[in-house]
Specification:
about 375 residues; alpha+beta; DNA Polymerase III, Chain A, domain 2; Proliferating Cell Nuclear Antigen; 3 domains; eight-stranded antiparallel β-sheet; 6 helices; about 15% helix; elongated
Length: about 375
């Protein structure tokens, strides 16, 4: 096996595949990077058994400057190999495997020889046989992930809540996540109807890694779902993830249908106020910020205190305030995550009582995106 390739383009593809490789795996060969060379292309594969990423570099793509002298395959120690390639002195790198499973890496005046393993021992990729494909704009899918993955649970005691629940039916995709303290739900219209209904739970960790691979302005993400795997196709890169097994809780009943008090304000300016208040709340044991609405028209007040440090109060000008006066306490970190997902938009926050969950929605699109937060009882 022998090929020569542009080092910086090769490094970018290595970085993608490394996202799937963990040093903590119980299968030793999965700490390695599988490389398969054919006369037309080089295929890189990395996996931790939960996530598998495969990417292809072809001789036809001038960006890679790829020339193949001899086909073959090998598994190389991923982190070590990647660090070597990044630090090589020349723009071109040549990788050659001759006798056994030793790879020689040369670039300019530098030359490394590292030990590899037989690629035949590397686990096979999952089979995704469905032809039903859902296509979404890359920036839209990245936005959906960012708006929902914030609410997944980090507690392994309820593994089902560590994923985002996707329901695809007809022309609608709905993504929802909850950790039982907060909830995030986003709906989007698909460009065309799909033949089959899908109801799957994708691990939040997988979606976070996928989101990092979707570059701004990237064109399309293709989604294919099988029995226990999901495949995302981003150009020449294939991203596989296992699905979580089990039934996701019925979340629609958690969202209140009516409210006693509503306030409309700008998400980014409210976020700045919450960030200032949380400087003190983080110093106290309970990490709570209080929001007071009314009786003054269109004026809300944020307050927080830490017995050891002091207290904070800030008035916030709302564009609209309707309903009964209210005092409600909440975790400011949950509020900050929710507000960041709205960007610069105007939002409406709806409350039913001081002890019931409240909702945040963008005023221009109230039906398709909702964040819900459970308040904190302070007495």
């Amino acid at each position: 096996m022998k090929f020569t390739i542009n080092r910086s383009a090769f490094t970018a593809k290595l970085n993608d595949v490394l996202r799937a490789i963990s040093s903590k795996t119980t299968i030793p060969i999965l700490t390695g990077l599988k490389m398969v060379v054919s006369p037309q292309d080089v295929t890189l594969t990395g996996s931790d058994a939960d996530i598998t990423i495969q990417t292809v570099m072809t001789t036809e793509d001038d960006a890679f400057g790829l020339t193949v002298d001899q086909a073959g395959s090998i598994v190389l120690p991923a982190r070590f190999f990647s660090e070597i390639v990044k630090k090589l002195p020349d723009q071109q790198v040549t990788i050659e495997v001759s006798d056994g499973f030793q790879a020689q890496i040369t670039s300019g005046s530098a030359s490394f020889t590292i030990n590899g393993q037989d690629a035949e021992n590397y686990p096979r990729l999952p089979e995704i046989e469905t032809t039903d494909t859902v296509k979404l704009a890359g920036d839209l899918f990245k936005e959906i992930i960012g708006q929902t993955v914030i609410a997944v649970s980090n507690q392994e005691s309820r593994p089902i809540l560590t994923g985002v629940h996707f329901v695809l039916e007809g022309t609608q995709l709905m993504a929802v996540a909850t950790d039982s303290h907060r909830l995030a739900q986003r709906k989007v219209q698909l460009p065309e109807a799909i033949a089959q209904r899908y109801d799957v739970i994708i691990p939040g960790k997988s979606l976070t890694e996928l989101s990092r691979m979707i570059s701004d302005g990237s064109e399309t993400v293709e989604l294919r779902i099988a029995e226990n795997q999901v495949l995302f196709i981003l150009g020449e890169t294939w991203f596989y993830s296992r699905l979580l097994e089990g039934n996701y809780p019925e979340t629609s009943r958690l969202i209140p249908e009516s409210s006693e008090t509503t306030v409309e304000l700008n998400a980014s300016s409210f976020l700045a106020s919450i960030e200032r208040a949380s400087l003190l709340s983080h110093e106290s044991r309970n990490n709570v910020v209080k929001l007071t609405l009314g009786p003054d028209a269109n004026l809300a007040k944020i307050s927080g205190n830490s017995p050891d440090v002091g207290n904070v109060e800030e008035d916030i000008q709302a564009s609209s305030l309707e309903g009964a006066g209210l005092e409600i306490s909440f975790n400011p970190d949950y509020m900050k995550d929710a507000l960041r997902s709205f960007g610069q938009s105007e939002i409406k926050i709806a409350f039913t009582s001081a002890l019931r969950p409240f909702t945040l929605v963008p005023t221009e699109d109230e039906d398709n995106f909702i964040q819900l937060i459970t308040p904190v009882r302070t007495y």
